[in-house]
Amino acid sequence: MTFSPDSLRFFTFIGALLGACSLLLLTRHHILSRFHRRYTCRFEIFWDRKLRPYCPRCRNRLSEWGMHQSFKFELRDGRMQRIPVTFGAFRCVPCETLVRLVDEDGFEVDLDFALERLRTGGTPAVP
Ligand SMILES: [Zn+2]
């Protein structure tokens, strides 16, 4: 089978290809818009109406919240030093990442703070 630009077969092939691409885009758009109607994006993750968390990458349900260990580098006495830090995050099992909650000002928040803000729509009192 050869494709020359003049042949009817070539244009049929291109037409089918364009049709398949647009169908794929329409399906993707439909799925995405349905997702955004059901879920809201707050604290850089997705939440459903029952305030259950979903991964921002793969959109799977996030597992339980937990405390995790990591390191940060800080300049001390003119040298960069590795300092252990503890942070709260969800674990996404399908994409094997830790997902932190970050507010609109770029500050990391814990789960209770985020849930309280989602329920009330306001800012809870900082203890
Ligand atoms: Zn994920």
Short description:
The chain has about 130 residues and is α+β, with helices and mostly antiparallel strands. It has two domains: about 40 residues; about 90 residues, no CATH class. It is built from two helices and eight strands, in the order H-E-E-E-E-E-E-E-E-H.
Cα(first) to Cα(last) distance is: 74 Å
Please compute the radius of gyration using only Cα atoms.
Answer: 23 Å
Average pLDDT level: 86
Number of strands: 8
**Which range does the strand content fall in?**
25-35%
Topology order in helix (H) and strand (E) letters: HEEEEEEEEH
Structure classification: alpha+beta
Number of DSSP helices? 2
Helix content: 25-40%
Largest sheet: 3 strands, antiparallel
Give the strand line-up of the largest sheet: 1-2-3
Q: Residue ranges: pLDDT <50 for 5 or more in a row?
A: none
The dominant shape is elongated
List the domain count as a whole number.
2
List the bound ligands: zinc ion
